[in-house]
Amino acid sequence: MRILALLSRGIDRVVLAAGTIASLLFVPLTLVIVYDVIQRKAIGYDNRFIDTPLYLSSTVLQELEWHLHGALFLLALGYAYVKDAHVRIELLRERFPWRRKVGFEAAGILLLLLPYCWFVINYGWGFAERSLLTNEGSATNGIPSRWVIKAFVPLGFVLLGLAGVSVLLKCIVRLSGSGENVGDEGPLGTPPSPSGPSTR
Amino acid sequence: MTLAESLPLLMFLALGVLLFSGLPVAFVLGGVGLAFAYVGDWLGVFNAARLVIIPNRIFGGSVENLVLVAIPMFTFMGTMLEKSGVARDLLRCLQLLTWRIPGGLALSVVLMGTILAATTGIIGASVVMISMMALPVMVSQGYDQRLATGTIAASGTLGILIPPSIMLIIMADLMTLPVGTVFMAAVVPGLMLSALYLAYVVGFSALYPERAPPLPAEARPDSAAALGHLMVRSFLPPTFLIVLVLGSIFAGWATPTEASGVGAFGATLLALYNRSLNWAVLKEVCARSALTTAMLFGIFVGATCYAVVFRFLGGEEMIDNFILAMGVGPWGVLFVIMAMVFILGFFFDWIEITLIVLPVFGPIIANLDFGDHVGVWAGVDAAPLVWFTILLSVNLQTSFLTPPFGFALFYMKGVAPPEVTIQAIYRGIIPFVALQLIGLGLCVAFPALVLGLPSWLSS
User: Fold this and answer.
1) Are A69 and B51 inside 8 Å of each other by CB?
2) Model confidence pLDDT, tens digit, residues B145-162
3) Which residue on chain B is closest to A61 by alpha carbon?
4) All residues at 6 or more sequence positions from B428 whose CB lies less than 8 Å from its CB, including other chains
5) Is A79's CB within 8 Å of B34's CB?
6) B405-B406-B407-B413 Cα dihedral, nearest 10 degrees
7) Looking at the predicted structure, is the pLDDT value of residue A194 above 70?
8) Which of A59, A83, A49 lies closest to A144 in space, CA to CA?
9) pLDDT tens per residue, range B265-322
10) Strand, coil or helix: B449
11) Cis peptide upstream of residue A192 (ω within 30 degrees of 0)
């Protein structure tokens, strides 16, 4: 159990790091939009500006915007699971005894989340690979090498799958009753108190 | 009906049952979608090789979509605004302006909810901010708890109806309508709800002045000059943001995405100006915005998988046939959908309802003919669809307030003072849900409320 808890913690570290990097993409995303708006609306394609190296093609900037947006949310999918930010219908769940709650979570990860991740990783890989092999670029002289951002689809689901494995390991540790600490943040909430009845 | 024919129905049932297991909605949507694809493959009604298009749909629908970039940006803007201290000044000022009037605190809450709604596109921020700042004051001044909680929940919820709004962006994207038009169409219905709330508060306070007392004399402003100063200081920042974001969209000067980025930047500057921004705050705002964004797009992606499979299995035809078989005409269909959304709102949030209901019913709505009732509006393409989208979004206002599952109630419970009971919150929202339904009825009866402004602005 000790090894499983350590493994889960190690995975969390990777997923959290990816999520933190993703969250900081808000800064460049905001700046890129503002830069694009200023050069088009405020400076208005003044020729004296266009000739300077400060001028960046609006097509490139706008493609950069959705590139950043896509990378941001895809890299944060697993992060949101580890932080338990994915919306649930809590109506019945909040009344479940903890064993059922943890058991359902484990079953959901095994039967729904991991197959779903496997599927998107598998097909998403082919999707990005085809883009690389056909040397797909931008249709409008924007950012070349479309495969880079396409690869974020399977990458995001690798992180989500890893987050799923981590939560699954925590479920196993909890259900084993070994008392190993797996933290009380995240989808499983606080552990049952050792003295209390084990049904709640 | 054979097993193969009933697959879409079973798929719908499986989704419903599994959602109540309490697993994240995003995974349930994706997992159920794929499971039924393979069941269909096994039964020979569907070739699983066709699933190869799913990554393409995810990419094209959620990533390579410049319009949706406005969603993370408006989320960031709302979260940043919560940290900027703008709301605190605004509420203080509104309270001073209304200190003598019975029900003044409740009136200032409605006004504040309306102003915040025009600066943010999410509701969590508004409800939490108003609950934290206004609820303790109202309770300590002897306000009726039901009036206090209902007013705050309903006013905070306006955030997602009055543009900018991430809900309207998602709806516009799903219905392939221009975001700007949908934004304009939501302005009058949003302000109308706000006016209904104000009228209710005024009426309630006139009937029961002791349950909505004015502030005591020591709370009055020091001087007219001080009040004037506070007014300028507190109204200037939101006005600046509203002009920057909504003004530039409505004037046709900027796209919603451009406006969202500039608004996010503006909110950051305001926080900087109020000295409430440092590296730790920036990191926290980024992290919280990223979690919300990932949550929204997680459901978006899951719903994409679900919808693709549902369509492949013949689910759309099934619903089409079902609606035809009811033989209730366009008004009947509208009524059924609205009633269904209202009832679903007791258990689900806007995001699940929007992403599950809209893709399924969108094509049906597009084919309904309301003839002269909606009419033709100069400058508004697909007027019936715009009208329907706004009806849906007004209706969804109730989903935030109706127990057991209302987002607004949830947020409020988290920050309410301990003496506020959950019963008071549940009973407090009843008149406001009634007002929202009246607002919905008015929008149904008078499409001009919805379509007048976009038509006028674009001509």
Assistant:
1) no
2) 999 999 999 999 998 999
3) B66
4) B145, B146, B147, B148, B149, B150, B151, B153
5) no
6) -90
7) no
8) A59
9) 999 999 998 888 999 999 999 999 999 999 999 999 999 999 889 988 988 888 888 8
10) helix
11) no
CA B181, CA B249: separation in Å to the nearest integer?
Answer: 10
As a whole number of angstroms, the distance between CA B69 and CA B334 comes to: 31
Show residues of chain A in contact with B348, CB under 8 Å.
Answer: 89
Residues in chain B with CB shorter than 8 Å from the CB of A126 are 52, 55
- Reduce the secondary structure of A140-200 to three states and give it as a string: CCCCCCCHHHHCHHHHHHHHHHHHHHHHHHHHHHHHHCCCCCCCCCCCCCCCCCCCCCCCC
C-alpha pair distances (Å), B412 with each of A83, B175, B263, B264, B400: 21, 32, 26, 25, 11
Please choose, from the candidates B215, B217, B266, the residue with its C-alpha nearest in 3D space to the C-alpha of residue B84. B266
CA atoms in the 13 A half-sphere facing the CB of B231: 10
Report CB contact under 8 Å: A69, B69: yes
Q: Which amino acid is at A9?
A: R
**pLDDT classification of A196: cutoffs 50, 70, 90:** very low
Task: Name the H helices within B274-349.
Answer: 279-312, 315-326, 329-347
Q: A124 and B55 in contact by Cβ < 8 A?
A: yes
Determine the residue among A75, A119, A122, A134 to mutate to test chain B binding: the one whose Cβ has the most chain B Cβ atoms within 10 Å: A119
The residue assigned the tokens 């987002």 is B407
The confidence score (pLDDT) of residue B412 equals: 85
Nearest CA in chain B to A71: B63
Across the interface, of B73, B289, B349, the residue whose CB is closest to A87 is B349
For residue A54, with 0-12 CB atoms within 10 Å meaning exposed, 13-18 middle and 19 or more buried, which class applies?
Answer: exposed
Cβ B455 vs Cβ B379: under 8 Å = yes
Distances (CA, A) of B333 to A36, B171, B353, B369, B445: 45, 19, 17, 11, 16
Contact A65 B351 (CB under 8 A): no
Sequential DSSP letters for B80-147: HHHHTTHHHHHHHHHHHHTTTSTTHHHHHHHHHHHHHHTT-S-SHHHHHHHHHHHHHHHHHTT--HHH
CA-to-CA dists, residue A126 to A154, B6, B46, B318, angstroms: 9, 32, 21, 33
Distance, CA of B450 to CA of B440 (rounded, Å): 11
With vertex at residue B302, the alpha carbon angle to CA B298 and CA B308, rounded to the nearest 5 degrees, is 150
